[in-house]
Structure formats: C-alpha cells, structure tokens
Design a protein that fits this description.
By secondary structure, the protein is an all-alpha fold. It is 55% helix and 0% strand. This is MICOS complex subunit MIC19.
Amino acid sequence: MGSGSSSTRKVEVENDGTVIRVSDAVVDRLKGIKPESKPESERAVYPNQHHVSPNSLTSLDVKRLVEKELAANDQYWNDRLLKLQASSRSIEDVMKLEYYQAIKEIESMYPERSFGKKVPCEDVKKNILKCYEENRHQALKCSQEVLKFQNCLVNKAY
C-alpha cells in the first residue's frame, strides 16, 4: 500500500512467565505514529531488558495462586466430607441403639411372644398344608384343619 521502503519485521518472544514491558515509542511505531526525535543522549537502549513492576503478576504467579486456591478448596471439601461421614456414623449408632432398646422393651412387655422363638401352632400349620396338597381342587375339605389352626392361634395369643 505504501510507496515507502518499509519492510515487515517479525518478532518472536519466548516468555518464561515474566512480564515484558514495551516503551511508548515502540507502541507508537507499531501503531504507525511517527516518533518524535530525541537527542541521542536521552535514548537509552538496553537489549533484552525486562521491566517488571512490583504490583504486576506473572503467569507463573497466577498459576501458583490458582493451584494454591484449588488445593485449599480440595482440603476444605475433604474435611467437610470426613465430618459428614463421622456425623452419619454417630447418627447410625444412635439409631441402632434405639432400635435394640425398643426390641428389649417390647420383649419385656410381652414375654410370651419373644422374638426369635418358635412359631406358635407349627404342627397344626403343617397339617393344613398337607391337607391342601392332598385336596388341591377341593379346598373346602380342609375347613376343619383351618378351624383347628385358628383356635390354636387364639389360645396362644392370650
């Protein structure tokens, strides 16, 4: 476009996490603004000079900060999980204790019906099942056995 003898320059910068400051003159040249001429004595040229202000963060600093925050977050949630698990275990222990106390209380109220003992009227129940097997299509023939079982249960209940 221009008729001058300008040439395109390519600049490659390897950044190892430090901040590279660019002077206003370089910014002006990149924008295409003509620089004001300064006397040679005022120009200080220092090749590969990096200016880092004390308040600026490098990408390495940001990465370290993020990793530190993530580690703190992980620690917080691990601690929270452990506390919840401990709380759950203590609630479970209380529930088990209350359950077993309720069983003991019921057993003391009804000692003749203690849990874990033999089922009442087991022999009469077996007679009913045998009768039903022998009379599969004539269930009414077992009515006497059913009445015996019913009377047995009523007598065992009291």
